[in-house]
Specification:
Layout (H helix, E strand, L loop, with lengths): L1 E5 L4 H12 L3 E5 L10 H5 L4 E2 L10 E5 L8 H8 L3 E2 L2 H9 L3 E6 L4 H13 L5 E4 L3 E3 L6 E5 L14 E4 L13 H14 L3 E5 L3 H5 L5 E6 L6 E8 L4 E7 L2 E8 L4 H16 L4 H9 L9 E5 L2 E6 L4 H14 L5 E5 L4 H6 L1 H8 L4 E4 L18 H4 L5 E3 L15 E5 L5 H18 L1
Helix pairs in contact: 5-8, 10-12
Length: 441
């Protein structure tokens, strides 16, 4: 079959395009962004064409799918619609694809990418698997039995999936432009849960997860003693996180993982329990965890001379707070500075106070202007990053042009956070340091 993916450099669409190609389909795509994005690496490796104009033609049997970031009136979507091509939502196509395999749907407000990546890694070390992970990673082969799919609740996407197995890492208020309230969010997760065929692993410490009326067998995990699987004796060290896992009050095993923060331990346990259900031995899981490397832009550490850089996808207050606390675990003797790029106007105003509390975990917080491609600023009058900065204990605005505000922080850990791209900010910092070095020489 032939597929044309609009917004192909988006994380989800890039992943889908790679999977469709791997399964033997003819794939091409369009994107507004001509500059390089990390999500196009897999596309280039597969020689998937990316168009930036509105002149190319397609056979009538081409199926078009598009990113919601483009909007229904995007010129390229209007053009292919006028050409009479079939248009399908990308989550519907993804649902069709995973139905051909034994699928593991990983859902939750936070932790989807890390948990999916952990399961993928363990399965790859023990025979192989297909995977759809929202960090721009996708691969599929008809020779594999299992398909790990990150299952996003945005716009109720995951209700199109009917996974064989599922994980629910947590449920919180998020994407309030799509949902009425927390009850609406939970009810949508309940649809996903009850679409699951065989088995669910769910975070029993989360009140909203507990409220779901499960029709499928569920195993609850967490730190609370009322769970089926309980995390005990957790030790968060500078090199790794270590813990014991008890199942039905019996010690299942002691594990360590090169990840940082209590939230990462929770995600690791979800992955362990799922792989145990799939028949992977405790010893094989233990060995695989020790060699795990997280997905792109998940606590990615680099250095520019003496400055430690952390690049992370965190964009919700809970994620920001958890990540900053994990930075303190990894670098206990360092000053922590955060550079945060808010991604939507709706999330900025909905979680203003929560953002302030989370960013105050850092010693200093900088914010850029809001970077949003699916909302219009005129629809949110008065909503800017400044409304958060005004409430911070030690906050300021920043941009690529004013990156020199970070000069006093060169001996700190600087954490760049956003679900939007922060490469420009990191590159501006690197260029600043290079220019300073040249002047000193």
């Amino acid at each position: 079959m032939k597929y044309y993916c609009l917004g192909i450099k988006g994380t989800g669409m890039s992943t889908l395009a790679q999977i469709l190609y791997d399964l033997g389909n003819e794939v091409s795509g369009y994107d507004d962004a001509k500059g390089y994005k990390f999500t196009q690496k897999g596309l280039e490796e597969r020689n998937i064409p990316i168009y930036y104009d509105h002149d190319h033609q397609f056979p009538k049997d081409t199926i078009v799918t598009y990113s919601v970031a483009l909007g229904v009136n995007h010129p390229e979507l209007v053009r292919v619609r006028n050409m009479g091509l079939t248009i399908k939502k990308y989550n519907e196509i993804m649902g069709d694809v995973i139905s051909e395999f034994k699928s593991i749907g990983v859902s939750g407000t936070h932790g989807k990418t890390t948990t999916s990546s952990l399961i993928k890694h363990i399965l790859e070390e023990n025979g192989g698997c297909n995977y759809f992970i929202g960090a721009g990673d996708g691969y599929a082969s008809r020779d594999n039995d299992y398909f790990v799919v990150e299952s996003d609740e945005f716009n109720r996407h995951f209700t199109a999936y009917h996974p064989t197995y599922a994980i629910i890492t947590n449920i919180e208020r998020e994407h309030m432009e799509c949902y009425k309230d927390i009850d609406d969010i939970r009810n949508t997760f309940e649809i996903f849960a009850n679409n699951t065929i065989k088995f669910i692993v769910a975070n029993g410490d989360n009140q909203e997860v507990r409220k779901i009326n499960y029709k499928t067998k569920v195993l609850f995990y967490g730190f609370g003693f009322n769970n089926d699987a309980v995390i005990k004796n957790m030790k968060l060290d500078e090199d790794a996180s270590r813990f014991d896992l008890y199942i039905n009050e019996e010690l299942y095993g002691s594990f360590e993982v090169p990840l940082f923060g209590k939230h990462m331990v929770s995600d690791t346990v979800a992955a362990i329990l799922m792989c145990r259900e799939l028949g992977i031995s405790k010893e094989a899981i233990y060995d695989a965890l020790k060699t795990f490397k997280n997905a792109k832009r998940r606590f990615a550490i680099s250095r520019i001379d003496e400055t430690i850089i952390v690049d992370d996808y965190a964009h919700h207050p809970t994620e920001i707070k958890d990540t900053l606390e994990a930075v303190r675990q990894k670098f206990p003797d360092k000053r922590v500075v955060v550079v945060f790029k808010p991604n939507t106007y709706s999330r900025t105003i909905d979680f203003k106070n929560e953002f302030i509390d989370a960013l105050n975990v850092a010693d200093k917080a900088f914010l850029t202007e809001i970077d949003c491609n699916r909302e219009k600023p005129e629809d949110y009058p008065g909503v800017t990053s400044q409304i958060i900065v005004d409430g911070l204990r030690n906050g300021d605005m920043i941009s690529e042009e004013t990156i020199d505000k970070l000069i006093p922080e060169f001996n700190s850990v600087i954490v760049f956070m956003s679900c939007a791209y922060v490469d420009g900010l990191i590159n501006a910092l690197a260029k600043l340091k290079e220019n300073i070095k040249k002047e000193e020489d």
